[in-house]
Amino acid sequence: MNVIHTGGCHCGAVRFEVRAPARVTVQRCNCSICRMTDYLHLIVPAADFKLLSGADMPTAYTFNTGVARHLFCNRCGIKSFYVPRSNPDGYSVNLRCLDPGTVEAATVEDFDSRNWEKGGANLAHLSRPR
User: Fold this and answer.
1) Domains of the chain
2) CB-CB contact of 80 with 18 (8 Å)
3) pLDDT digits (tens, 9 = 90+) for 39-84
């Protein structure tokens, strides 16, 4: 059963909602950017993500293959969501940027992105409509 979770960046300029279970499974990635920011990925289909405010605030950053579109609030610098390389048809929401109250439990799975070519396809199902 899915619920609506809300969240956003630190300064509040970027706000979104995401439809996902109350008990979520998230990925902890070991790539350089995720490791340095302690990002926890809640990957959802594009249809389950809605930007509520701040469409003009994100600044895009790409590296390596250029497929992932890392989106940072240009005011506070927080990456609350982005379009991941593994799921270019969906969004990855940072679990740490969700408002308190709707997540009942979170299971954290490790994802070895240092060996992305071996395991990247294992995440593709997460952005398919449920």
Assistant:
1) 2-116 (2.170.150.70)
2) no
3) 999 999 999 999 999 999 989 888 888 788 889 999 999 999 999 8
